Amino acid sequence: MPHSLVLNLVPLSPISPNYLTGRHLHALFLTLVSSVDYELGDYLHQASADKAFTLSPLQTPHRRQRRDNTLQWEHKTAIPAGTPCWWRVSLLDDTLFGKLTQLWLNLNPDHPWHLGPTDLQITSIQGTTQSTQVWANASSYAQLYEKASERDRVLSFSFSTPAAFRQGQYDTTLPTRECVFNSLLSRWNKYSGIEISNLFLESVFPSFIDIHTEILADSRSRFIGIVGEVSYRLMGEVTPLAIKHFNVLADFALYCGVGRKTPMGMGMVRRLLK
Predict the structure, then answer these.
(1) I want to staple 267 with a disulfide (CB 3.0 to 4.6 A). Which of 63, 171, 174, 257 is the partner?
(2) First and final C-alpha spacing in the chain
(3) Full-model pTM
(4) pLDDT over 90 for what percent of the chain?
(5) Helices 22-36 and 38-46 meet at what angle, rounded to 10?
(6) What does the alpha-carbon distance between residue 107 and residue 104 come to, in Å, rounded to a whole number?
(7) What torsion do the CA atoms of 266, 9, 273, 1 make, to the nearest 10 degrees?
(8) Buried residues in 34-55 as b, exposed as e (16+ CB within 10 A)
């Protein structure tokens, strides 16, 4: 079953922006994994295909709340020591969650984890949705499938961190129906064990778009992606089963994200119910 876990963290010294990039947080996650299963950590490090986890950028409470539901994907200044932070980790594979159970159950707040030269304390982990934390949740794949609506034709998404999609040798930032739903479909079919064989994409049309591009640059690369909100509507004669399949994927988006670099904090997406 997919899990969306929120780790609440406190840095014991300031965190420089240089260590708040996706690759440093990716390294932190692999360190956590390796602490309970070294071979699994090594396997995830070497895996080049679509990975069975996603990560968020590190979030702080001092960021001004935005009405567009976006998250903080880069930091211009250091995060001060003692600042409560949160970090989302989603796991798509039952095996991966099972192997990490000992990590979640035996967290020692006195044992710090390292993000660059900074020590972090993991103070708690949230695994179920709450009014103050919409990114924590868990559901079996069977439950996601069974509960998905057969009538809801409007599929609204918040692109909360920059998302981009690979097309051939290059990236595109345009969230076309093919890019978004094929990304969700490939991950659903890979991990769920409940195959959805056909999507009637010709029935999907954007009905609301409020997006803009963002450019992220670090010492190694530049990434351009879109953030904002997009709604799609199913038009014409669409069977209840086809509607259900689109709703399954829309609900699954919280866990898997879309597009490129989801293990580095990009492509975080969640459904907006209106």
Answers:
(1) 257
(2) 26
(3) 0.91
(4) 62
(5) 150
(6) 6
(7) 80
(8) eeebeebbeebeeeeeeebbbb
